[in-house]
Amino acid sequence: MKDRITKKLTIIIMITIGILIIISSIFVVLSKSQNIYNYTKENKNYSIKIRYEKTKVKDIDTKIKEIVAKEKQEFIKETKNVNKNSKTQYHLIIKGEAKEYNSIEFTHIIVNKFTGGNHYKRKDISYIYNKNSQNFTNVSELLKNKNSFKELSLISKHLINKYAEDHKIKLVEKDLINGTNPKKENYQNIYLSKKGLTIIFVPYQVSSRFDGEIKVTIPWNKLNDILKEEYKNKKIIKATITRKKRDISKYKNQKVIAFTFDDGPNTATTKILLDNLDKYDAKVTFFVLGSRVNDNKKILKRAYKEGNDIASHTYSHKDLTYLKDKELEKEIDRTNTRIKQIIGVEPIYLRPPYGSVNEHVKNQTIMHTICWNIDSLDWKTKNRKKIKKEIVKNARDGGVVLVHDIYKESVYGALLAMKDLKKKGYSFVTITEMSELKNVTLDYDKTYYGF
Ligand code: ZN
């Protein structure tokens, strides 16, 4: 008896679940189709295909409706010119996409039209709408400041260069710069997503030849200095380490030198350096090896906290120009991840081992390539006096000095040089401070030897 009831109950439950699944899937399909506008029409003279996503924001949907109606009308007018006996058929294809992120609604419409001639004519129309302020807006509103726009432009240019290399497209520098200049018009077709900020460069925007559209995405970890706080990805953990930031205005129009220390960190010798930097008001840059940071965590954190720059010298000091892409990626990414685990932020400067770098290597990263123009030759002489002499002899304003903080003699040599150079009116700054003082917004496609 009990068994039969259980059986009946099970059947009833199963049927109910089944019905629920059917109803909900119908609902999903219906709501999806409600969000999409679809229209097709075809006759002997022409065909029209329109398909776009609606946004549920009345302001935007009205605008799109108007645009689409206008395009359709114009197109039909043009088809009147088609010779009735002609076999050519005109085409109008309108596609629209809508994306929402952090209360910003991005819509992008592509109008492709064929009305005779050799090819389709393409037109891109985009709207950016802020749901909070209920206003149409543009890329500038998303950006932190004027410098952010410069930065956005430089990263875009860099990513297009990578795209061009991957797709074997030959770009003309002048066209590329024109199409990526920090102007609103160049950044109309954009959207934010889980991946980052995507920018669509329309055909002919960055190349006077037809290379189709070029779509690039700036990852979230590179958007920190670009986007306003409210538009950032909340999941990207912010640095929790508070760090000294000094006022460098006093160094403006003064002779400055950037001391850079490679191949560390090495607790014993790096400590000697850090203990003495204050004597010369010096901040320096450490190009560390990813393979060494975990064993020297404390000193790395201290160096960062005290206002020095932490940068990457790759994971295991291989010549990057000989590596396959996968190995190259590992050399860079592993280092960046490890450094981030310790100081909370990823490094932005890369010093390729042996100063060996080429365009391909640069295209594989979104980092600034920093080499040097003053070699202390410390690895050769291993003598503090000789090291000091070599640095002082070659010192110049805007210079970048290469030393290795894994050797005691090198550290002392650098400190002796600072003592001498300070008397000669030099100040000692990090790469970040140097580029700020020299008014250089670093280009991702260049290699910097000095400033
Ligand atoms: Zn090295």
Write a concise synopsis of the structure shown.
This protein is an alpha/beta fold.
Can you tag this structure with a few keywords?
451 residues; alpha/beta; Heat Shock Protein 90; Actin, Chain A, domain 4; TIM Barrel; 3 domains; 14 helices; 18 strands; binds zinc ion
Q: Which structural class do the helices and strands define?
A: alpha/beta
Shape: elongated
The residue fraction in helices comes out at: 25-40%
The CATH architecture of the largest domain can be named as Alpha-Beta Barrel
Taking pLDDT < 50 over at least 5 consecutive residues as the criterion, the unreliable ranges are: none
| Lateral arrangement of strands in the main beta sheet | 1-2-3-4-5-6
Task: Provide an overview of this structure.
The protein has about 450 residues and is of the alpha/beta class. The protein has 3 domains: about 35-135, Heat Shock Protein 90; about 140-230, Heat-shock cognate protein, ATPase (Actin, Chain A, domain 4, Alpha-Beta Complex), CATH 3.90.640; about 250-450, Alpha-Beta Barrel (TIM Barrel), CATH 3.20.20.370. Helices cover about 40% and strands about 20% of the residues. It contains 14 helices and 18 strands. It has helices at about 1-35, 60-80, 140, 145-165, 175-180, 265-275, 290-295, 295-305, 325-345, 360-365, 380, 385-395, 410-425, 430-435; strands at about 35-40, 45-55, 90-100, 105-115, 120-130, 135, 190-195, 195-200, 215-220, 255-260, 285-290, 310, 350, 370, 375, 400-405, 425-430, 445-450. It has a 6-stranded mixed sheet with strand order 1-2-3-4-5-6. Strands 10, 11, 12, 15, 16 and 17 form a 6-stranded parallel sheet that branches. A 3-stranded antiparallel sheet has the order 7-8-9, covered by helices on one side. Strand 4 and strand 5 form a beta hairpin. Helix 6 runs parallel beside helix 8. The longest helix is centred in the first third of the chain and has 33 residues, at about 1-35. The protein is elongated. It starts with a helix and ends with a strand. Zinc ion binds near residues 263, 313 and 317. Zinc ion (ZN) binds near residues 262, 263, 313, 317 and 353.
